């Protein structure tokens, strides 16, 4: 009887040991499955996040306007960027910025593209500027005419000067620009005496291009868009002065061609405004050269007699349109001229301007500095 009891105990011990071995196998198997799943999940998550951090379309060139109001949270910013197709995943963008400890994004309107990297987008939102590495750039200096800008583009691209001029003067392109920038490109450019409708509307700046072979329109339109953006800053002052955008650009273009220094611009602007108010012709030499269509170092007396709507020795008031592109300093002087009683000025051989209130005083300075 005692033997049987011992045997039963031995059997129970063996059963428990067997059960433990089975449990260990099950735990090991389960652990293996869990580790495998975790590994698969981790790899999948890695590729998912890595893919979400890549540009939506590396070849995209079209810019998308993205407005981020003041007080926008990271959630709002992330969702806005995803909705505009600038990023692939709002949540990934949100957590990426937190991991990188990126914050203090600036409110504003941005022209972003789907080809930008996450880091480029973050850098742009933190500084208020759009950062990308361009394939090439084109620099347009102040005071250039459309002809001269066309030559700059011809040297930097495969497009000829003729192709450039054909596009900026085409009715279809001009109509598109009017529709895209209605407050800046207005019907004022349609006047019959205007040589080139978009003369003076291509802002001087350095323009980056992110595609190896952008279309000619993609090269030119940013220059007009920049003019529109700059002009918007003066909208309140223009309204207050009852000055149209076209006349503003025209006036500023005269200063750009006449001035040799920042201070001169404001004083020359006062001379022009004083002459306009007195119903006197502006009599500025750069308009004569524009009328002649020539680049000359000196204007002759016979040149002053040319019959042309741009010749301000023959017409009163402003010419029909700009004679060049004006930079910021000339725009500032045009809207904020100096307060003077000057009606005349003459430039000496060193490029210094000398101002006079009367014609006799002016003649004396011409005798002193020119002859």
Please give the structural blueprint.
Layout: H1 2-52, E1 64-68, H2 74-83, H3 90-99, E2 108-112, H4 118-127, E3 136-139, H5 146-156, H6 161-168, H7 171-180, E4 206-209, H8 216-232, H9 235-241, H10 245-258, H11 262-277, H12 285-292, H13 328-335, E5 344-347, E6 353-356, H14 359-369
Antiparallel strand pairs: 1-2, 3-4, 5-6
Helix pairs in contact: 2-3, 5-6, 10-13, 11-13
Q: How do the helices and strands follow one another from N- to C-terminus? A: HEHHEHEHHHEHHHHHHEEH
Helix-strand category: mainly alpha
Oligomer: single chain
Shape: elongated
Overall pLDDT score: 87
Note the gap between the termini.
145 Å
Number of separate structural domains: 3
Q: Can you summarize the main beta sheet? A: 2 strands, antiparallel
Instruction: List unreliable stretches of 5+ residues.
Output: none
Number of helices: 14
> Strands of the biggest beta sheet: in what spatial order?
1-2
Radius of gyration: 35 Å
Q: How many extended strands? A: 6
**Percentage of β-strand residues:** 5-15%
Helix content: 40-55%
Main location: membrane
Site (Important for catalytic activity): 258
Subcellular location: Cell membrane
Protein name: Endolytic murein transglycosylase
Describe the structure.
The chain is mainly alpha-helical and 371 residues long. The chain has 3 domains: 64-127, Dna Ligase, domain 1; 136-232, no CATH class; 242-369, no CATH class. Helix content is 51%, strand content 7%. It is built from 14 helices and 6 strands. It has helices at 2-52, 74-83, 90-99, 118-127, 146-156, 161-168, 171-180, 216-232, 235-241, 245-258, 262-277, 285-292, 328-335, 359-369; strands at residues 64-68, 108-112, 136-139, 206-209, 344-347, 353-356. It has a two-stranded antiparallel sheet with strand order 1-2. A two-stranded antiparallel sheet has the order 3-4. Strands 5-6 form a two-stranded antiparallel sheet. Helix 5 crosses helix 6 and helix 10 (245-258) packs across helix 13 (328-335). The longest helix has 51 residues, at 2-52. The protein is elongated. The termini are far apart.
